[in-house]
Amino acid sequence: LLNELGGGGGGAGKKLAVCAVVTAATATATTIVSNVDYIRTWWQQKKDPEGGGIAERRQRNRLPLPLTGQNKKAAQLSKEVRALDQRGQVFKAKALLMANKDINFTNPDDIRLKNAVLQRADDAQAIMREISDDSSWVKSYDNNEEQFETLYRHRQGEAVHGIKMRAVFNSSVTNVLAVLREFDLTQTWNGNMKGAAQLGFPSPVSVQAYGAGFMPWGPFKTRDVLFNGYGADALDEHGCVTLVFQSTKKAMCALPPISKHCVRADFRRSGVVLEPLPPIPGAKTRVLASLVLNGDPKMAVPGWLASFGLKVFAPKVKRDTDELLAEMQEDMSSPYVMRKKQYPELYAMLDDRCEEYLSRTSRAFPMK
């Protein structure tokens, strides 16, 4: 080949030049083949349809970011915020983020964590404000002896109906929390619940649940709801534990079969505030539980009928809950007691937090 290429004059010099060209081409081809994995990664990043900057592409392709001083600070801050969030201490996590505004997150997971923590703290704060403000609500039931009251709100032309309840229970914060969180056990004592399930636990203080409830009026189909909920430990900041829940469209697993025969209702931002109360003679543990529920039942319900139904059915729910909580105090084999033992990282931890809170404050929470 060299003889043919070198023909026609030029002699050895021309042959030497051609040889050099062929050698360089061979070396280039060898380099390309030996680095094919690198080139493939580079090309995938080049044509990345998801876009994003270098940090996002490195995250998706699991290429490590170089740890600079700023990145080390961000990584440490993210670790501390995540630990607080896992314990439900979102107000402390938010305060920590606000105190370190100069630290910028570049990792997409850290950015999502920051946004989620800020949103959770804001939602919990909004629930506490809504529960404390009765200015737009109408009282539908009030019984001082039972220490129980209900309120109702409906703005003309809107699909959402608001229900608010306040009740004092001679029980602990964690027992009331268990009744709310262990949602799948609701069917064991509430005859109106036709289906209930826990679908997943994104964190120790969050849950996704499903419930289907009987409609007491006429031929209406059973309504069901799929929702996400999480808890916020606000004992140090506001003297309470706040639960926030809201409908979601994406289930973490398959829904119970009854869901095929129901109409899906919609929970707008709703929640529960649990305030530990000092003990009194005959009641070692007490809690003021306040619920605000904003829901669209996906049907036209006259305001007067909803208010009447609340007045009739809410007291029964209160009495049933009293009986359930009393059973939890006396029967250590209760399904709720057994379930609490399965999650000491939540319930035992919160029991300690409430005991510590009450030991350093004599604040009382009177009924409004």
Topology:
Blueprint: H1 2-5, H2 11-34, H3 36-46, H4 54-60, H5 69-86, H6 90-99, H7 108-132, E1 138-143, E2 148-153, E3 161-169, H8 173-181, E4 193-203, E5 206-213, E6 223-234, H9 235-238, E7 240-247, E8 263-264, E9 266-267, E10 270-277, E11 286-296, H10 303-330, H11 335-342, H12 347-359
Parallel strand pairs: 6-8
Antiparallel strand pairs: 1-2, 2-3, 3-11, 4-5, 5-6, 6-7, 7-10, 9-11, 10-11
Structure description:
It is built from 12 helices and 11 strands. It starts with a helix and ends in a 9-residue tail after the last helix. By secondary structure, the chain is of the alpha+beta class. Mean pLDDT is 85; it is low at 364-368. α5 crosses α7 (108-132). Strands 1, 2, 3, 4, 5, 6, 7, 8, 9, 10 and 11 form an 11-stranded mixed β-sheet that branches.
Question: Level of helix content?
Answer: 40-55%
Number of strands: 11
Mean pLDDT: 85
Strand content: 15-25%
Structural class: alpha+beta
Q: Which term fits the overall shape? A: globular
Series of H and E elements: HHHHHHHEEEHEEEHEEEEEHHH
For the record, give the distance between the C-alpha atoms at the N and C termini, rounded to a whole number. 101 Å
Give a short account of the largest sheet: 11 strands, mixed
- Model regions low in confidence, pLDDT < 50 over at least 5 residues: 364-368
Rg estimate, integer Å: 31 Å
- H/I helix tally: 12
Relevant terms:
368 residues; alpha+beta; 11-stranded mixed beta sheet; 12 helices; 11 strands; 44% helix; globular; disordered C terminus
